[in-house]
Amino acid sequence: MAQLNMVQAINQALSLEMARDDRVLLLGEDVGRDGGVFRVTEGLWERFGSERVIDTPLCEAGIMGAAIGMAAYGLRPVPEIQFLGFTYSAFEQLFAHAARLRSRSRGRYSCPMVVRTPYGGGIKAPELHEESTEALFCQVPGLKVVVPSGPYVAKGLLLAALRDPDPVLFLEPTRLYRLLREEVPEGEYLVELGRARVARGGNSVTVVAWGSMLERVLKSVEGYDAEVLDLLTLNPFDSEAIVKSVQKTGRLVIVHEAAKTCGFGAEIAATVAEEAILHLRAPILRVTAPDVPVPLAKLIDHYLPGAEQIRNALDEVLQY
């Protein structure tokens, strides 16, 4: 099997599904001739043509609205928003229409589309280019939120998302685009949405992470008897896997790069408190970014959770 990075794995998934299903089309700023801002769609315009790989104006609300119309009509659009921070101008389209179309029409229409967008910090980019506000999108029922953590799962999750009958927000960790290489099968395979995976077995403490934080967590837990869960899907998230692990270990540390207040870690903590509180041997700890706007390049490394913070949290719950 070839060793691919995440950019190549996602490109391969898009190419496979476009070849398999002629209803799939891509649209967004620079996705065609230029192959996308991170070159994720490189070569697809040449292969499938300008009617299926569409360069759009710089208008996120327009991109999202057009994609929703295409999906309702029966196509399977894949709109790309260049950075998660740029989706804010398309909130109304995504929340009030895409996520509600099936319910609003009492099942007569669905909205099978996948919104791809890079997210997260660590690339030292300008303002709004390193946002990690994934919890905002988990609030509205009807929208699935998926976050891959490496090339293999990125391809399988994207193929599964592309075949889902409802809208999926596919968050691609920018820092991981070319950081990791993994063996990725050339053909198609699916990674089930809504299921976490055990990235590392252990018995003394459960650590839950997703996206680019998984790579940081796996390095940080060396020397600890820690079980690491890679969430993969945030909405709906695999509460059963988390509760099962906490029942075994008795301790829980949650790591995410979003701000702490109302971050998705709070939902995980509340769920464990409701369903497994009698199994806890220590308080649930969250290792997160501080409650401040994402800083510019010189401070970003101080803003994101680091190995020292993760290990301090592990020590605290283990010594409780």
UniProtKB/TrEMBL annotation:
<dbReference type="Pfam" id="PF02780">
    <property type="entry name" value="Transketolase_C"/>
</dbReference>
<protein>
    <submittedName>
        <fullName>Alpha-ketoacid dehydrogenase subunit beta</fullName>
    </submittedName>
</protein>
<dbReference type="InterPro" id="IPR005475">
    <property type="entry name" value="Transketolase-like_Pyr-bd"/>
</dbReference>
<dbReference type="InterPro" id="IPR033248">
    <property type="entry name" value="Transketolase_C"/>
</dbReference>
<keyword id="KW-0786">Thiamine pyrophosphate</keyword>
<feature type="domain" description="Transketolase-like pyrimidine-binding">
    <location>
        <begin position="4"/>
        <end position="179"/>
    </location>
</feature>
<dbReference type="Pfam" id="PF02779">
    <property type="entry name" value="Transket_pyr"/>
</dbReference>
